[in-house]
Amino acid sequence: MALPVLRGCHRVSSTLKITRLFLNESPVLNRGGRPRLPPPPAQRPFSSPAGGQQNQKVVVFGIPNPFIWVRTRMYYFLIRAYFDKEFRIEEFSEGAKQAFSHVSRLLSKCQLDALEGLVAKDLIGKLEEKLNLMPSNYKKALSVEPEEIMYTTPGDVGIYYGDDGRKFVSILMRFWYLTSARLPEDTMEGTRVFQVALGEEGEAETKRLLSAHYEFQREFTEGVAPAWTITKIEHSKLLD
């Protein structure tokens, strides 16, 4: 069944691109090639049913494939040896997490012009087409606050050499996050649902665990400005 067409996404005016430089948005991946991290967000307090304040978290963990774990570590070594001696996957992952949250919120609000310089141009056009067919509750489920990210792990790593001598590195990042957006059960098969107590009265809020894949690519050709660009965006069950 086709999704109902609600209010479409349109490119916002260029004024937004200027305004966002003065907002308190966290910078994503700096142009020096290393993640530039803002202060960590405050932990959102959850309350117990008795009313006492305590921090409760849904713990999500995965067991990595040993072969993939060894292979990706070899690629990290190659990146440090031949491309960027200061590269650290831990720092990159933190920067990617901030980028994921920032870009997902822009997608949810259909602020596509604000994605320029962060997301590949050809990908922005494809995202616009998909968002125009997406109902408002699905768009809300795209938005991710930093504290809603439950688990982050690197995926595939690639090193590419073009025939013209250009050099590229790509890193796929996988994220699992909680959302309170109301989503139909029949289209969300396979996702996990949690009851989380919030507020002083301990009222329960239903949250669903969703996943997303973002691929980051950087060109290391001599003379090219150092910048990581998002070349792939997938939100499982929402934006494939």
UniProtKB/TrEMBL annotation:
Stated name of the protein: M-AAA protease-interacting protein 1, mitochondrial
Region called Disordered, residue ranges: 30-52
Signal peptide: none
GO cellular component, as recorded: mitochondrial inner membrane
Organism: Champsocephalus esox
GO MF annotation list: ribosome binding
GO biological process: protein insertion into mitochondrial inner membrane from matrix
Organism superkingdom: Eukaryota
